[in-house]
Amino acid sequence: MLAPAHALLLAALALPALYVLWLSVTDSSYGSGGGFVGWANYAAIWDDRYFWRALRNTLIVIHIVIYAELVLATVMAVVFAGVRRRRLLISVILMPYAISEVVAVVIWKFLMDPDIGAVARPLALLGLPELHWASDPAAGLALVSVVSIWLHLPFSFLLIFAAVLGVPKELHEAASVDGAGAGARFRHVVLPAILPTVLVALVFRYIVAFRLFSEVWLLTGGGPARTTEVLAIYLYKQAFSYANFGQGAAAGWAMVVASLLFAAGYLKLLHRRSFARG
Amino acid sequence: MARLARIAVVLAALVWSAGPIAFVVLSSFKDNRAIFDFPPALLFMPTVEHYVALFQQWPDFAGTLLNSLIVTLGATALATGASLTAGYVYARHRGRTLAASAQFMIAIRLLPPIVVTLPLFPLADWLGLNDTYAILILLYAAFFVSLGTMILKATIDGIPEELDEAALIDGATPWQVLVRVIMPLAASGMIAASAFVLIYAWNDYLFAFVFTTSRAKTAPLILSEMMSSLTGVDWGVLFAAVTIQLLPVLAFVWIVQRWLVAGLTSGAVKG
Question: B53-270 has which CATH code?
Fold first, then answer.
């Protein structure tokens, strides 16, 4: 009875992953044929400034996205935990979870259009600089970050909200009796209690955020002049646009290793904390 | 003061989450001038002209919706079925090999989807699977079978094993136990497990973009074509198409919210 699940994973994930490992040491142009070239593909991406730019862009965007999400999710979770009859409110907060990346890009592209956007224009009236995200790489990546936060905030919120609800009421009451204000209660009661969950959310988000593709592909296509490429776009272009499967595969492994390294740092922190708490 | 701040946070969160969606749905019923009005009007004469134009200008749209529906139902059935059987095994049996295979399920899921497109694209081409429902169903199911298995294992853990044993003594086969005893009691877990894959399959862009071109093209893909149309974007038509694509899944999330939250907080975290 285990067979169907494991057959699916072997066929679609495990065997392809091994094959990618093999591809990354060949000069295959289309996934087949190709001779063994050793580390040449890894050396090639190491020397490719577009790879480093893609890596840098990825790291910038995912750090903005993840930390903005965690802060927003924590603030929302603490506030919503104090609201009564909140079921309907939570359903509204969940709505972006149902939305396709393509749809999110359509909506935000329109809302943030410098000339016609219903969000961009009020921001301009407030004196904020116009975001010419189609021509300015920094603005392009900023918009990618906004869309990404919007799509994933419900997930981070739900995880952290559940943790906040799990903080025992007695702790709150005891702290209040001792004269702790709202700020002190958050720092000394809520935050320590939800920290393990925040770390779990961080690990999850690091692993998923590294996959960032559709938002960038649909908003800027990696342009102008390859300035907004992220790792997944770089990989896709190497393989499917430049017919260089070997380098694409090497970039794929670089992506997996990078995401695991970042996630591992937080996993270690989580591990140490859970031991410290005995 | 604290109360005011709280209300402000709640309002901001609601506008941030629902505002963009409400905006696009309302705009799809505005005429071409009103769409660009600033500030956007809340009261206006609704029109369905964009919906009419949508099906005239994009005759393929209905077909892509049907493709999305077929792929989504197929992937959901496959992932849920495979998760149920695997979850049942993990819930009822212990052992070192089993524990290792469960860890493998979770670890392999860390692989980014785009990485597996490299080897699978030429392979699917060779097998004649490109631009078919089968390749999408297989991929969507594969990426959600791990989460589904963990959710269903947690659910079945809560069903007393005495029930299995009683049925087995009465001469039922393990399959009959699964279908007649376990399935009815694990319904909530099955809903949670299927909800995640259903939402993903209906909304995915990446796999549809890489593996389909025409026959199996899904709705998100044609939406992206409308958005990058060379003749300029017809926003009204695009908003109409977006509304049709998002309303069913939005309604679905509202209905299954309870199980979704339970699934996220049990299966995803503890698994």
Answer: 1.10.3720.10
Could you write out the three-class secondary structure of chain B?
Answer: CHHHHHHHHHHHHHHHHHHHHHHHHHHCCCCCCHHHCCCCCCCCCCCCHHHHHHHHHCCCHHHHHHHHHHHHHHHHHHHHHHHHHHHHHHHHCCCHHHHHHHHHHHHHCCCCHHHHHHHHHHHHHHCCCCCCHHHHHHHHHHHHHHHHHHHHHHHHHCCCHHHHHHHHHCCCCHHHHHHHHHHHHCHHHHHHHHHHHHHHHHHCCHHHHHHCCCCCCCHHHHHHHHHCCCCCCCHHHHHHHHHHHHHHHHHHHHHHHHHHHHHHHHHHHHC
Most trustworthy range by pLDDT among A20-29, A173-182, A197-206, B200-209: B200-209
Q: Which residue of A has its CA nearest to B12?
A: A76
Chain B residues closer than 8 Å to A6 by CB: 86, 101, 105
Distance from CA of A10 to the nearest CA of B (A): 9
**Topology of domain A50-276, per CATH?**
MetI-like fold (1.10.3720)
ipTM rounded to 2 decimals: 0.93
CB pairs under 8 A between A and B: 250
| B234 has a chain A CB within 8 A of its CB | no
Mean pLDDT of chain A: 88
The residue among A13, A234, A256 with the most chain B CBs within 10 A of its CB, best to mutate, is A13
Closest alpha carbon within chain A to B269: A200
pLDDT tens-digit map of B233-243: 899 999 999 99
Domain boundaries, chain B: 1-47, 53-270
B106 contacts chain A (CB < 8 A): no
Residue B109 contacts A, CB cutoff 8 Å: yes
